[in-house]
Specification:
Structural class: alpha/beta
CATH topology of the largest domain: Rossmann fold
Distance between the termini: 56 Å
Order of helices and strands: HHHHHEHHEHEHHEEHEEHEEE
Number of strands: 10
Radius of gyration: 21 Å
Mean pLDDT: 88
Length: 283
């Protein structure tokens, strides 16, 4: 369908209740995202931006564009618009300290360590895991640790693969980590830092919808799935937790966000400490 390409876009353009209902139903069905009533203004602002980017005449035109597209490409754009890819290096620092003390330290040197960053956003989480492992294991970390990093957002994955961050993004890292694990931009790239290729090589990035079908992923010593289940309803959370548990090795750990809880969800994991759960058995 062709739409006009306006030179301006009305700021007062609103999201109708009908389109809100259809878009939120689609987001829940395809991605598990639960956009409850009260999110209309947030959704409208993000869809208005997408409509501008695509030179469509209104939010309504963008909604129809998404709903009529059979290629699936517009759905990917929609999920990029609706999800907030907020993250940071060393976010929830205690989790990385736990990773070093209980995942790395409890694994004998002859074994590799497999970790899944299940909502990796723009890459800060998987790269932090790599840096923490290299600090703990030295150069042996390059061969011992492998990280699978997945996200539903193609835009976030593109940024993660580039591994380029503004100076303020790396400011929370120890200065020594920045020196050892990043390349510092010069000239026109001053103020930017790029993850070193040998660190980036420890991570495999893949697109994955956590509520959709999964290809074979393997089994993991630890899964970080943090601050993503807050977008799901309780039924979707329960399904996801049990699927993640099945991907853990015996004795493996699931780490969720501190704002998330598995209370009320039936699952096979044992509570270890806030936001940390363990599968039975020994590693």
């Amino acid at each position: 369908m062709d739409y006009p390409r306006p030179e301006w876009f009305p700021e007062q353009d609103t999201l109708s209740p009908r389109h809100f209902a259809r878009i939120t139903a689609l987001a829940k069905q395809k991605f598990g995202i639960d956009l409850k009533p009260g999110k209309e203004e947030l959704v409208a602002a993000r869809l208005r931006k997408k409509a501008r980017e695509l030179h469509l005449g209104s939010i309504a035109a963008y909604c129809e564009h998404v709903l009529e597209d059979r290629t699936g490409e517009s759905l990917l754009g929609l999920i990029d618009a609706l999800t907030t890819n907020h993250t940071a290096f060393l976010r929830e620092r205690a989790h990385f300290e736990f990773f070093v003390r209980h995942v790395l330290a409890d694994t004998t040197p002859e074994y590799g360590i497999q970790v899944w960053s299940a909502a990796c956003s723009s890459g800060e989480e998987p790269y932090t895991l790599c840096m923490a492992a290299l600090e703990a294991l030295g150069t042996a970390g390059f061969s011992r640790l492998s990280v699978l990093a997945t996200d539903i957002s193609t835009k976030a994955l593109e940024a993660a693969r580039r591994g380029i961050y503004a100076a303020e993004r790396v400011a929370e890292l120890p200065a020594e980590w920045v020196r050892k694990y990043f390349l510092k931009g010069q000239g026109a790239k001053a103020g930017w830092f790029k993850i070193r290729p040998e660190v980036a090589a420890m991570v495999e990035f893949r697109r994955l919808n956590l509520v959709g079908p999964w290809p074979p992923l393997g089994s993991f010593d630890a899964i970080f799935c943090r601050n993503v289940m807050i977008y799901f309803d309780r039924a979707a959370q329960a399904r996801l937790v049990n699927r993640l548990a099945a991907c853990l090795k015996p004795g493996g750990y699931l780490l969720v966000g501190h704002a998330e809880s598995l209370t009320g969800i039936e699952h096979p994991l044992t509570y270890v400490q806030p936001a940390v759960y363990r599968r039975g058995g020994s590693r």
